UniProtKB/TrEMBL annotation:
<dbReference type="InterPro" id="IPR036378">
    <property type="entry name" value="FAS1_dom_sf"/>
</dbReference>
<dbReference type="GO" id="GO:0005615">
    <property type="term" value="C:extracellular space"/>
</dbReference>
<dbReference type="Pfam" id="PF02469">
    <property type="entry name" value="Fasciclin"/>
</dbReference>
<dbReference type="InterPro" id="IPR000782">
    <property type="entry name" value="FAS1_domain"/>
</dbReference>
<protein>
    <recommendedName>
        <fullName>FAS1 domain-containing protein</fullName>
    </recommendedName>
</protein>
<keyword id="KW-0732">Signal</keyword>
<feature type="signal peptide">
    <location>
        <begin position="1"/>
        <end position="19"/>
    </location>
</feature>
<feature type="domain" description="FAS1">
    <location>
        <begin position="28"/>
        <end position="170"/>
    </location>
</feature>
<dbReference type="InterPro" id="IPR050904">
    <property type="entry name" value="Adhesion/Biosynth-related"/>
</dbReference>
């Protein structure tokens, strides 16, 4: 009897979970962390946690749109032998700024709505981020780019926050090392063509690499 009862409860729980998955537009989760961890944004979720930003993004009152770098993007960052990148990763204050630069507070925007906003504003829409500086959304061959970085997947929702996956980590202009600024324009042009260095097993090694890089100072 007990077994039957437990199974019934599990079925009910499973049914509830299924009911939360909204239709073809995307997936729904109760929190940003849950959404990120279930959608190959494990490193982003870990970085938020390491930088004490989980509470900020998981606040159920927060309406926002987040452009979350893929696990491959964080892996590339952690693997970079660029000293400026490593210095950034090792600086907790700056990393918190970098992460907040991916959060646009105020509206829960679907991918389709983003496209409309850009189209209605002559091909470019600027959003103010939680970090304070702006990001630019544009259309490249019909796909949304953020500061020249392609959006790879859209419409995963955690609470009132809409999450879109981007192919690279965004750095606020004020934190871009001076020597790098000259390359930025060229980088934007290339970003479109750049393919993600996706490989199986990347996420697992990243889990080791990123927290080590980020936690190095604590
Ligand atoms: C959400 O908003 C309500 C109403 O303003 C407030 O009472 C509550 O404390 C807020 N919750 C969080 C987690 O900030
Ligand atoms: C966004 O666009 C504005 C206006 O063209 C430009 O001044 C600014 O540098 C751009 N920001 C980024 C992060 O590319």
């Amino acid at each position: 009897m007990r077994t039957v009862f437990v199974s019934a409860v599990l079925l009910a729980v499973a049914a509830c979970a299924a009911a939360q998955t909204v239709g073809p537009a995307g997936k729904f989760y109760p929190t940003v962390t849950a959404a990120a961890e279930d959608n190959n944004l494990v490193a982003f979720a870990a970085a938020l946690k390491d930088n004490d930003l989980s509470a900020l993004v998981n606040n159920k009152n927060l309406s926002a749109t987040i452009f979350a770098p893929s696990d491959e993007a964080f892996k590339a960052l952690a693997d970079s032998d660029d000293k400026a990148v490593q210095a950034l990763l090792a600086d907790a204050d700056k990393m918190a700024e970098v992460l907040k630069y991916h959060v646009v507070p105020g509206a829960t925007l679907t991918g389709a709505r983003l496209v409309k906003l850009i189209e209605e504003n002559k091909g470019k829409f600027s959003f103010k981020t939680s970090q304070g500086e702006k990001i630019n959304a544009t259309l490249v061959d019909g796909s949304v780019n953020i500061n020249g970085v392609p959006v790879k997947a859209v419409d995963v929702q955690g609470g009132k926050v809409m999450i879109h996956t981007i192919a690279d980590v965004l750095v606020p202009p004020s934190l871009v090392p001076k020597a790098k600024k000259a390359d930025a324009k060229e980088g934007e042009a290339k970003a479109e063509k750049k393919s993600e260095s996706g490989a199986a097993g990347v996420a697992a090694s990243l889990l080791l690499a990123l927290p080590v890089a980020v936690a190095a100072l604590f």
